[in-house]
Amino acid sequence: MGQRNRKKTQNPGVREMVQTAVFAAVILIMAFTPFLGYIPLGFTRVTTIHIPVILGSLMLGPGRGAVLGGVFGLTSFINNTVNPTATSFVFSPFYSLGEFSGGPASLLICFVPRILIGVVPYYILKLARKCSKKGKTPGAGLVLAGIGGSLTNTLLVMNLIFVFFRRAYAAANEVTVQAVYGFILTVIGTNGVPEAIVAGVLTLALGKVLLRGRMKKELGASK
């Protein structure tokens, strides 16, 4: 009887805050554990932090997914300010490389694509469920949600870099301004595409477990 009453009086707002905090804690642990969330490759970093953001979007919905994406953006901002690489000025207005420095556009690049990682996968999976004959969670939908979330980040970040920082980014990578978009496409192909494939595989593997009815009930997720 007492247990039933506790369930009835459980505050949904508190439960949602706890769920979001758990995913945020995972993001923070990954972000500040060396070679886990951000893997340095000299001129840039390979990112794996988008995985919990994608899973959070699928489990908790686009609103809280956007919050988790914002946490991801914050960790990127901190990392690129206190532990910079040659191109950290595109993510932090407080870092400069010679005559080139970040600015307000750095915050746009750092936060907006990461926030959208927490939004796009939810709607991709929602569409996949609508297209599914049984209305269940299709494996292909999970893969596409993972790939879509990852590519949302990569494509927006790299193209916004071209829009706002093409000259500085070209100088930092020792390529001409005329060749910088070709270089950006190379980065997308060598870093972004593998990241997206890994995101698709992990979203499928982890999503199948986390989105099961029993698991969602135990975690208190209703999305």
Model description:
The structure is a single chain. The protein is mainly alpha-helical and 223 residues long. It has one domain (2-219): Arp2/3 complex 21 kDa subunit ARPC3, CATH 1.10.1760.20. It is 71% helix and 4% strand. The chain is built from nine helices and four strands. It has helices at 2-9, 12-31, 50-60, 62-82, 104-117, 120-131, 139-172, 180-210, 213-219; strands spanning 38-40, 45-47, 96-97, 100-101. The strands form two sheets. Strands 1-2 form a two-stranded antiparallel ribbon. A hairpin with a 2-residue loop joins strand 3 and strand 4 (100-101). The protein is globular and about 55 Å long. The mean pLDDT is 86.
In short:
This protein is mainly alpha-helical and 223 residues long. The protein is built from nine helices and four strands. The longest helix has 34 residues.
Radius of gyration: 19 Å
**Shape by Cα distribution:** globular
Average pLDDT for all residues: 86
**What is the helix tally?**
9
How do the helices and strands line up, and which of them pair or pack?
Blueprint: H1 2-9, H2 12-31, E1 38-40, E2 45-47, H3 50-60, H4 62-82, E3 96-97, E4 100-101, H5 104-117, H6 120-131, H7 139-172, H8 180-210, H9 213-219
Antiparallel strand pairs: 1-2, 3-4
Helix pairs in contact: 2-3, 2-4, 3-4, 3-6, 3-7, 3-8, 4-5, 5-7, 6-7, 7-8
Notable traits:
223 residues, two-stranded antiparallel sheet, Arp2/3 complex 21 kDa subunit ARPC3, globular
